[in-house]
Amino acid sequence: MDFLAALAAIIVIDLVLAGDNAIVIALAARNLPKEVQRRAIVWGTVGAVVVRASLTVGVLWLLQIPGLLLAGGILLVWIAYRLLAGGESDPHDFKPAKGFWAAMRTIVLADAVMGMDNVLAVAGAAHGSVLLVVLGLVVSIPIVVWGSTLILGWIERFPALLYVGGSVLAWTAAKMMLAEPLIEDWLALQPALRAATYVVIVGGVLAAALRKRKSAKELMQ
């Protein structure tokens, strides 16, 4: 059950954080001839998956260093907040490519740059398991490639899906911090504090993001 729960968390994280990446893929290939467009998207995505998997495995190794699991959890809290409150990155900054190889290069580089939040989140949810990372990518990437428009439409139609994803990210961040070897033994004797950590982090991220969105709406009126 722990394995399946972690896999489900990874798939949700991949899908929620894949919106901007899906737009980049579409923009990079949009000026190519139709017969080349699909091939560029597929092979560009394959290259992006290889790069992302390699980065994630590298992060899995780095998170074994004492202190970095706690730091990664704190960073993931910020990523969850940014996702819900509204990020500052603009995928439309990437210009359409003029050829097959240029499109592949744009897709791979853009995914590597924009996918670092995804890499950290997946590494945190995988709990050191390379198999979970690979399975999560294998399941979610085809959905992103062929259903990116559908996913974006779902999120726009049902905004609550975004908050579900943000909550999963915040939960993963709390789990990462609580698994930090420097404090894990001490926290094992504090079950109430462990439970409170999840409530404070998940609830705090949701409350802060909702407040930010409300303030932004008031400024626009």
Word description of this protein:
This protein is mainly alpha-helical. It is built from ten helices and no strands. The chain is globular.
Order of helices and strands: HHHHHHHHHH
Q: Fraction of residues in helices? A: over 70%
- Quaternary state, please? single chain
Percent in strands: under 5%
Poorly predicted runs of 5 or more residues: none
Please summarize the sheet with the most strands.
Answer: none
Bulk shape: globular
Evaluate the radius of gyration.
18 Å
DSSP helical segment count? 10
Class derived from helix and strand content: mainly alpha
Mean pLDDT: 75
Extended strand count: 0
- N- and C-termini, Cα separation: 47 Å
Give a short synopsis of this structure.
This protein is an all-alpha fold. 83% of the residues lie in helices and 0% in strands.
List the helices and strands and how they pair.
Layout: H1 2-16, H2 19-29, H3 34-62, H4 68-85, H5 100-114, H6 116-126, H7 130-157, H8 160-178, H9 181-188, H10 191-220
Helix pairs in contact: 1-6, 1-7, 1-8, 2-5, 2-7, 3-5, 3-6, 3-7, 4-6, 4-8, 4-10, 8-10
